[in-house]
Each structure stands twice: as C-alpha cells, then as structure tokens.
Amino acid sequence: xxxxxxxxxxxxGRRGRSREEPPAPPSAGSPSAGREEAGHEDEVAGVAGGGLxxxxxxxxAFLRRRLSGAYEIDDFGYDRDLTDEVLMTVLRPVFEKYFRxxxxxxxxxxxxxxxxxxxxxxxxxxxDGLMLQVAVRDHHPADxxxxxxxxxxxxxxxxxxxxxxKAGHTLACAEDAQELLERGELVGVMPEGFKGIGKPFADxxxxxxxxxGGFVATALRAGVPIVPCSIVGAEEIYPMLGNSRVAARxxxxxxxxxxxxxxxxxxxxxxxxxxxxxxxxxxxxETKDHPPEAADDPMLMFQLTDQVRETIQHTLYKLLVxxxxxxx
Amino acid sequence: MGKTVLVTGAARQLSGRFVRHLRRDxxxxxxxxxxxxxxxxxxxxxxxxxxxxxxxxIVTVLAEHAVDTVVHLDVHxxxxxxxxxxxxxxxxxVLGTLQLLGACQKVPGLRxxxxxxxxxxxxxxxRDPAVFHETTRVGAPTGGGFVRxxxxxxxxVRGFARxxxxxxxxxxxxxxxxxxxxxxxxAAYFRLPVLPTVLGYDPRLQxxxxxxxxxxxxxAAREPGTPDALAPDTYNVAGEGVLLLSQAARRxxxxxxxxxxxxxxWLGSALGTxxxxxxxxEQLRSLVHGRVAxxxxxxxxxxxxxxxxxxxxxxxxxxxxxPGALPPEHVARxxxxxxxxxxxx
Lengths: 328, 345
Known about the structure:
Chain A is α/β, with parallel strands linked by helices. In chain A, 44% of the residues lie in helices and 10% in strands. The relative contact order of chain A is 0.12. In chain B, strand 1, helix 1 and strand 2 form a beta-alpha-beta unit.
C-alpha cells in the first residue's frame, strides 16, 4: 500500500514531538527548510511537483470564477462548476473509501436522452441519493449528471435548499420532473419518500408503497425509459430503532430517528456506520410503446408501478443473499 | 386605416420610452399618453392627456380619441416619482386596472388590450416547481404586496376577456425589468452599496432588458395580420438564462450581508425608515426562493429569443451603475496575486 511508504510524514511527526532540540539538517534557515519539505512531499506523492501545482492552479482558477461570478447555472439552479469542483470532491471519498460503493449495471443507463432512475430509499438521512449521484457522475462513460428529485422539506431548510439546488436537485413534483426529462436530463427519483427513508430498522429492505405512481405517468408523458435501481447498504448506516413522534412534531419533521448513537451522542450520532454498499442498475423498462394519453389510465399506471417495484425488490433480495457481510 | 394607441402611466420612465418607441412606428397614427400627472420626460410628439385611470371619466378619453388599442403599463411595484406609499401604489394597480377595463368595455371601437403583468404572480415558495409555465395554476395570494395586486389585476383581465370576446387581450408577465430607465424595485436593490440577503438562501433571478420589453409590447399592440404581430395570449417575458443572487452580487461587485430570515422583515422596515427603499421587507421576502418562468411560448411567437439574455441585461445594468466596493476585475487580480505568491514564492 502507498501508505506504508510515507516515511517523511512520520519524520515530521517525530520532529514535531521533539520540538526543543533544533532539527539538525535545515540549519540554513526556515524558508529553505520549507522548500525541502515540500520537495519531500512531492517525492512521496509520487506524482511529483506537477500534481500539486496543477491542483493549485485549478483551485485558484475555480476561486477566481466563483469570486467574480463567472459561471453559469441552469433554470433549476444547477451549478455544474460548484458540483464538480467541490461537492463531488467532498462526496467522492465517502463513496470510494467509506461506503466502498460497488456499482453494477451502469450500461443500463442510456448514454443520451432523458431517462428516469427509480431507486429504493433508506437510511434516515438521504446518503443513498448522494451516492447514486456520485455513481452516475464517476461511473457513467458518457459523462452524465443525475438530477435528483427531493422532498419539499429540503427546500424549506436554509443552506440545505441552496446546496440542493446547486447540486442539481429539484422539487419532486410532476412539473419539474417532466421539464427535466423533456430537456433530455437523467432524473433520479425515490418514490418511497419519507416512508422509505424513515422506516424502522426491522423493516429494512422491505419496499414501502410507491406513492401513487406519479413517476411512471411522468416518464410515460415524456416517453423516456425507467431504469430500476437497487441500493444495498444504506439501510444499516443509521439503524433506526425508534421514532420519537413528539420530537418530530415539535421540530416539524416527518420523523425523528432514535438510533444506538443518536441523539445520545449528539452530532457524533450523525456519523453513519461504514457499511459496504452495492448499487445495481437494472434493465430499462421502455415506455415508448405506450401513447402519452396512456398516462391517464390508472390501471396501466398501477401495473407499471408494480413492475418497477417488483424488479427493485427482487434485485434487493438477490443482492442481500449474495452479500458476505454488512461491513465488508 | 387609423390606429390609435393609448398608453397608461406615461409619467413613468418605461411608459415614456414606449410612447416614443411607438411614435417611430409608421403603422401607428396616434399615440396618447395618459397619467394623473404630467411627465417630466418628452413624449416625442405624442399627445398627453392628464387623466386619472382610477376615475370613471377615463371612458371619455377613450371615446373622444377613438382609441383602438390600450396598452396598460401603469402596474408597478414601487411608488412613482411623485411618491406616495404602498396604499397609493395598490390603488393605482388594482382600482386603476378595474376602472380602465370597465371603460374599455364601454368603448365599441376598441380592438386590443395589452397589460403588463409580472412573473411575480407565480409567487415564490418552497413547494412551488422550479420553473413556471404560463399554464401553471396561480395559487391564492399568500402574504400581500405587489404579488397580490398582480393576481387581482390578472383576475380582472380574465373577466374582461370573457365579457368582450371580440377584443384581443394580451398579458405580458415580465421578469425583473432592468435598463437605463428602470425604476423597478430590484433595480433599486442592486444600487444599494451593500446588499442584504437572507442567510442560507440563494434565489434564482431572471431579468429582461427594457429594450426587449418595448419590442414585445410594440408587437403585442399590433393588429393580427400585420408582420411581427404577437398573437393575443399570456406570455412570460424574460431573458434567456438565470443568475443567482450571489452570482449577480459578485458580477456587480457589491458585497452581501446575509441576515437571518426571522430578522429580515425587521431589517427591511428599519432600512425603509432610513429612506433606503431598495431592501424593503417585501423585497427581502421575495429574495428567499427563486423564481424562473419558462419563455418557450414567447420564443415561438417571436420567432427567436429576446435580444438580451439575463446575463447580458445584468451586465449592462452593472456597467451603468458601476461596480461597487468589490469590482470583479479587482477581485480576480487579487486572486492572481495570491496565486502568484503561493505557487511561485
């Protein structure tokens, strides 16, 4: 592993501990010592000085764009610059190192044109949506961006609403979804909503009701395929043992989770457990064969909704059987 | 054939410009500007009639001059140059429209009515869709202020269109109008040296250039069949593209001061009493959630997008009203200098 070769950091640490005695080699003065250290770091980094310098140049270019307002956003407030440079950079380590997400079936997501990704929803906090966004961003060959549909609660909270809009999320309503699909965007939806994300630990991997199937009608009107998506691992990040209705009512939230760590450990309880995740994207379900008027046929909607739901549920069971452990 | 256009609110800057714009159109024979006080700007040879649209006597003006098209521009969110409080503005907006449309109904020769409305009619809330269409249902007025005025005005216009099916009725829902003469509320806001914003919210803004508004208005006032005429309908009028408030503030080089949402109305009233009208409580309330209107219908009817995008409109406004304390070029240069120091010692 690369970590094993990082000797200078250990040296630095030792040097830091024995602060009293002046370090012997850099007697020429501190600036040169600093440079020498930087040199060491470069050697360690392996990529050499070019890497750091390029990262710095990129960072400064980004800063310059942000501070002078020289970037573009779309009608929904999606700030691609901020999402790619900051939000994805922050989420990527969580995706790769913390949850070690394994993505399968990305070839089922069309390379161009609108499509509706329908996924299960779990985990008390919507980490699953964010991870799905990273999965599409990093693992889709055609450089696609997922536009998630979020609950209205997200857009009521200060700061959160701002970040959600800039990350490309928008309100889960038929108007916005249809508009995005017609513009040829990849839209992600979790039809279980709060029923899914706020369900007790005992009900894990049991899909809840899929709303009234509005997402199918929207996909049908826009004539885009539905890609079923199953996420395994998110259920165990905050095992929700109970739900304090009183606290939820007081705080005006849909649920107030009680987990082994929350709220007992305060903000520390909000750290998710490092479970191992799998995201499986299934074969797309085409809607083109139906005319757009079919969206008003409740029986067809019910049938299609059920088909999507069953596909996701079966895939979840299959993935669970194949899973070795929750954490590895 | 005779074509006589009556323009309300002629003492306002935008109406004044529109009257002059119409005077240059050879297909328009006569232009009549109407307002309750004489305009300070020239009307380019157009006739000015001093009349109050809130009074029933407006019908005699319409009949006397044989007006065939009424362009109602006296719908504002801010008091005019003569001053007057919010109640005066509301009176002109709501009662003025009511009386004017009543008078229009009584004049037999009238063929067209164009009303300038606002995209603010869609309101702004967390539960609203991100992009509004012309067909989006306008909800019950929440809060009050200009939004409520616009909802009531459009209600009257719809009623008028039902009662007079022979009259062409065009409603133009304009985004924030910016331009050399703009006296809109948001223009006043962006002229403040420091911009108060609501903490944790970054609304999406859409602007439309004054020149584009004049062009759309002129086309809407034309008879159907003449080239470039805009078919009677309801249109969203806004430049292409969207700017965030934070982005706009940086482009115009004005520092922002975020205020906690609960305190924003207080700050607004406090600034209002100090005479800084740009950041009223209503203004700050409208700067919480963004609002974007889809302009596809107008683009199709006009045969192309408007001349100015949202970004270009704002860039022109920023050039005119000068960069504030933090001009973007200086900020960029400062970043360059820091980069120079960090990367090359």
